[in-house]
Amino acid sequence: PDFSHRLAEYAAALSTRLVDLRRTLAEQRPDTYLPDLATSLNNQSVRLAALGQTEQALQAITEAVDLYRTLAEQRPDTYLPDLATSLNNQ
After folding, report:
1. Cα 21-22-23 angle, rounded to 5 deg
2. Which ranges in 51-90 belong to alpha helices (H)?
3. pLDDT, tens digit (0-9, with 9 covering 90-100), for 14-32
4. How far apart are CA 63 and CA 33, in angstroms?
5. Which of 7, 15, 34, 50 is the most exposed place for a label (fewest CB within 10 A)?
6. d(CA 67, CA 78)
7. Is 59 in contact with 12 (CB distance < 8 Å)?
8. How far apart are CA 51 and CA 17, in angstroms?
9. CA distance 54 to 71
């Protein structure tokens, strides 16, 4: 693979690791870390889609949408824009 493809693979691997870390943190302190997990899932979906891994990308963005939907119900002024972005990416 060329350099840009290898770079995309590396970025996807890093985003997956970040999702794993933030998932652990969100399990421990959801009020603090669920928004970060949702952001990481959104970013992961973009990275995976760039690699043509559409099924995994859809899974990640669907989870992000679900999290942002819950967050937006609690604090719409803060999280509706993020929900809209994730829905657009989905």
Report:
1. 90
2. 54-74, 76-89
3. 999 999 999 999 999 999 9
4. 15
5. 7
6. 13
7. no
8. 16
9. 25
Quick: pLDDT tens for 35-83: 999 999 999 999 999 999 999 999 999 999 999 999 999 999 999 999 9
Q: Which amino acid is at 82?
A: D
Residue 78, CA distances (Å) to 14, 33, 65, 75, 81 in order: 27, 15, 15, 6, 7
Q: At what angle do helices 3-28 and 30-50 cross, to 10 degrees?
A: 160
Give yes or no for a contact between 65 and 90, defined as CB atoms under 8 angstroms apart. Answer: yes
Q: How far is CA 28 from CA 31, 56, 85, in A?
A: 9, 25, 26
Q: Which amino acid is at 2?
A: D
Pair 83, 69: CB distance under 8 Å: yes
Record the pTM: 0.92
Tokens 């997956």 found at = 16
